[in-house]
């Protein structure tokens, strides 16, 4: 294969998100209606990992940028691969590798963001919200933490519905 071509498997966006919890509620964001990707859905705070940055640092940075707060006891909850190559408006970047963390609120005053509406929600309220399907699939693990990290792959059809998935909860030991 020529050096200047990119096979589609390497066209990937890497993201880091945080489920912040405090007093039995979670700080989530209802994405702005102006967003290209999944407008108006409720989602953990986060975004793309910058060049030279690891997912842990990206999650902390995104939280400070979007909400103005810090967390403690940051924990990796899930690593998901969303393949959206069949969704016409997302086919230019078909693979999204997403690191989901959880953390306890530590400091700072929550400030509203141009990214969307920040809101503290109880678990029952979260489950009623419109969410990205792969995020919904890990919700029970996030809301009822167990040992281990969820590893998942999700393939979407042209309408943004999951047509194939594989998930596994495992404890990684070094």
Describe the overall structure.
The model has no long low-confidence stretch (mean pLDDT 88). It contains three helices and eight strands. Strands 1, 2, 3, 4, 5, 6, 7 and 8 form an eight-stranded mixed beta sheet that branches. Strand 7 and strand 8 (162-170) form a beta hairpin. The chain has a single domain (8-170), classed as Nucleoside Triphosphate Pyrophosphohydrolase (Alpha-Beta Complex). The protein has helices spanning 55-67, 123-126, 133-143, and strands at 12-22, 25-31, 42-48, 70-83, 95-107, 116-121, 149-156, 162-170. With 174 residues, the protein is α+β, with helices and mostly antiparallel strands.
What's a quick, concise take on this entry?
About 15% of the residues lie in helices and about 45% in strands.
Which blocks of ≥5 consecutive residues have pLDDT under 50?
none
Rounded mean pLDDT score: 88
Number of strands: 8
Q: Give the N-terminus to C-terminus distance in angstroms.
A: 36 Å
CATH fold call = Nucleoside Triphosphate Pyrophosphohydrolase
The total number of structural domains is: 1
Assign the CATH class. Alpha Beta
User: Count of helical segments?
Assistant: 3
Broad structural category: alpha+beta
Question: What name goes with the CATH superfamily?
Answer: Nucleoside Triphosphate Pyrophosphohydrolase
Computed over alpha carbons, the radius of gyration is 16 Å
Helix-strand sequence: EEEHEEEHHEE
Helix content range of the residues, please?
A: 10-25%
Percent range for β-strand residues: 35-45%
Largest sheet: 8 strands, mixed
Give me the CATH architecture, please: Alpha-Beta Complex
- Net shape: globular
Family: Belongs to the Nudix hydrolase family.
EC number: 3.6.1.55
Protein name: 8-oxo-dGTP diphosphatase
GO biological process, one term: DNA replication
